[in-house]
Specification:
This protein is mainly alpha-helical and 93 residues long. It has one domain. Strands 1-2 form a two-stranded parallel ribbon. Helix 2 links the parallel strand 1 and strand 2. 6% of the residues are buried.
C-alpha cells in the first residue's frame, strides 16, 4: 500500500470505526508500510498482500481464493468503491 490519499482514508476508517463490532481487513498488491501494518493490527484488522493480477495472474487468483477461504467472506472491489461504501456507512450511522 502506497502512502496516498486513499490509503490514508482507509487507515482513518480503521482507526475511527468501533472495532468491537466491525473488523476491517485489506487486500493489497504492494508491500505494506510498517506504520499501516501497526494500525491494522492495533485495531484487529489484517492486511493480505497478494501478487499483482497482471504480472502473476495464477498466483493472484490462488492467493485471493486462499484469503476468501480464511475469512469466509470477502467482497473484492476496486478500492475507490470500498472507500465510498465505508464513508456512506459512517455518514448514515
Amino acid at each position: 500500500m502506497e502512502k496516498n490519499g486513499i490509503t490514508n482514508v482507509i487507515c482513518n476508517l480503521v482507526t475511527n470505526v468501533n472495532n468491537e463490532n466491525i473488523q476491517i481487513d485489506c487486500v493489497a498488491i504492494n508491500d505494506v508500510d510498517l506504520s499501516y501494518k501497526n494500525i491494522f493490527k492495533k485495531h484487529g484488522g489484517k492486511i493480505f498482500v497478494i501478487p499483482q493480477r497482471l504480472s502473476k495472474p495464477i498466483a493472484y487468483i490462488k492467493k485471493l481464493v486462499s484469503i476468501i477461504k480464511k475469512i469466509n467472506m470477502i467482497v473484492y472491489m476496486r478500492m475507490e468503491i470500498v472507500t465510498r461504501l465505508l464513508w456512506n456507512y459512517l455518514l448514515l450511522k
